[in-house]
UniProtKB/TrEMBL annotation:
InterPro entries referenced in this protein's UniProt entry, alphabetically: NTF2-like_dom_sf (IPR032710), SnoaL-like (IPR037401)
Organism: Siccirubricoccus deserti
SUPFAM superfamilies for the chain: NTF2-like (SSF54427)
Protein name per UniProt: Nuclear transport factor 2 family protein
The SnoaL-like domain, residue ranges: 17-114
Length: 128
């Protein structure tokens, strides 16, 4: 028999549940300890994106997002053994809509790199 072990599958259904229910603990648990997150949007352009390194920094990000009064809907997913991509659509009570395209690099069933490119309505979010 070969010496290769089967890859640990990533729990995309768990990610979707965690995002749609604003569960920061469950989201954080999906990341590798040394994961990296990069976010590009109007305030953080490609030349100067927001970069978070390590699960602790990523946890703080998700705690902030999950504490906001907003809805999340995940769809358009494409899932492979070492990468997943999807779109998240969010809505705030004031009518502001946010759309994020996310790509996740995966290893051993955990997120090791996360890229988000997002845009939102100009209704609010002057300081996002």
């Amino acid at each position: 028999m070969g010496g290769t072990r089967p890859a640990t599958a990533f729990d995309f259904a768990g990610l979707k549940r965690a995002l749609e229910s604003s569960d920061a603990d469950a989201l954080t648990g999906l990341y590798a300890e040394d994961a990296e997150m990069t976010i590009v949007d109007r305030n953080r352009p490609p030349s100067a994106p927001l970069r978070l390194t390590g699960r602790t920094a990523i946890e703080a990000f998700w705690r902030d997002v999950c504490a906001r009064e907003m809805t999340h809907r995940v769809g358009h997913e494409v899932i492979g053994p070492d990468r997943a991509a999807f779109v998240e659509e969010c809505g705030y009570p004031d009518g502001c809509a946010v759309m994020s395209a996310m790509t996740l690099d995966l290893q051993a069933g955990r997120i090791v790199k996360h890229l988000t490119v997002q845009a939102w309505d100009e209704v609010s979010f002057a300081d996002s």
